[in-house]
Design brief:
The protein is mainly α. The chain is 81% helix and 0% strand.
Amino acid sequence: MQARRIARELALLSLSQLSANPDKLAAFQLQDVVLAAVRTLTQEVHDTLETAAAELKRSSERLLSSQTRAEVADSARAMLQDALDLTQTAINRLGGAVELPEFIYLANQKEVRDYALEILSLVSAEKPQIDETLSKALVDWQLNRLPRIDADILRIAVAEMMFLSVPDKVAINEAVELAKRYSGEDGHRFINGVLRRVTDQLKGVGSAE
């Protein structure tokens, strides 16, 4: 279980970095996947900290120009809180990058590599069918408008349910855990709802929520 959980996380983080060519994927070693995952996390940390710095600068400028107007000061404090929240998110992501090598060392490394590459290959090869399935389950949303991390979490879960015989409940729970770690504040609820509609759709029950 631990090896597959790590493999899912590596697949999620490396999807945007690794080649979609199945032949090239098959040649990758575990360290290639880990490196791609760490690069993704590092880029996200960099982007998040840049956004936080810009928000901090805006709040500082607003405070300096606010004089004694309470509403402007309140707005500036809200910006400052946003900057602090973004910084905390960046710290959490950085912590994830540091933890990954240790988790992999403690797990079955061959199983981690094989399952991560199996997920990556399936998501690439079956993307049209996976995306069509997700599009039918989305309510008032378009798949290409979702944050990349949310769309990839959904794709991995659907790939596991449709092609890897992973029980629906397990795939959904694992996707929710990934969302809690990498998505926005309410991302895990959104992903849970979409995947429950996917399971109903795959069973022919129809939309339930």
